[in-house]
Design goal:
single chain; mainly alpha
């Protein structure tokens, strides 16, 4: 069993969140651009798989996640939204779902930061002894 490098994992997630935030911001900026197709990044599970850091399911009651293969953060065209479909201009950006993604990204950044702070304080308390 390999030790989990929490700081490296948090760094990878922060990088993934940064790319996702950029993609979502681009979608929002092009909401009125004719024939623009909304995009999103591959799930963070793909980044974990590429780092050979698969999340373990230690209890049958835990949710099993589906993973997508890949060796980097990929950007792909987003599935059509049932909310708007393809607009008359050919644009597929649904502003409501893009704004919801920005809130999700913010919460994930905050969680990442809090976990790193907690881990750092635990390490400092051990070193202080």
């Amino acid at each position: 069993m390999q030790p989990i490098q929490l700081f490296e994992l948090a760094s990878r997630q922060a990088e993934w969140l940064s790319v996702r935030q950029e993609v979502v911001a681009t979608n929002i900026a092009n909401a009125n651009t004719p024939k623009f197709r909304a995009r999103d990044v591959t799930p963070f599970d793909a980044v974990l798989q590429s780092a050979h850091t698969a999340m373990a399911r230690t209890n049958p009651a835990h949710l099993a996640g589906e993973t997508v293969g890949g060796d980097r953060i990929g950007i792909e065209e987003e599935a059509l939204s049932n909310e708007i479909g393809v607009q008359e201009s050919g644009n597929t950006v649904a502003l409501a779902s893009e704004l919801a993604k920005t809130g999700e990204i913010k919460r994930q950044y905050e969680l990442n930061t809090q976990l790193v702070k907690s881990f750092h304080s635990m390490m400092m308390s051990v070193v202080a002894r």
